[in-house]
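ARCHIVE CARD
Drawer: 12
Card no.: 0347
Subject: one protein chain, sequence and derived structure
Cross-reference: see card 0346
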Amino acid sequence: MKKLSKILTWIALIIGVISLIFMCMMWMEGDEAIKASEDLQSSTIVPLFVITWILFAITVIAIVFFVVRTWVKYPKTLMGSLVYIVGFVAVIAIAYALADNTPTLLSNGKSSTETDSLIADFGIWATYILGTITIISVVFGGFLKSLKK
């Protein structure tokens, strides 16, 4: 296990160094040069996006693997997990239902698309709902803890 940890540390270090190299390349070229040239975009920005997507995929695969492994090892945890998953999906559904897709005037004078407005409003509603649930949980948990004393 210690050897695997060491290997993963080295892999993370290598990915970090590679990402830093591409970031330095972007800083040296400058924003305007990168905006103007597709070649510079494909040689500096695209590799960072590829690294990001690869790390995202690895993260999702690892999460799914460990969750399924835990469910197989401890089947009783499956029901508790499903309750939280259904609750989260319910919050997402409620936020989507409350979201408004009316285009908004942006600071640059242009209007947002209906899709952009829907996604932004959905994110705001989801944040409000999850934040409210968090605050209520903390207050309620503190109240219950004070009753036990």
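Annotation on reverse: The first helix runs from residue 2 to 29. The chain has a mean pLDDT of 88.
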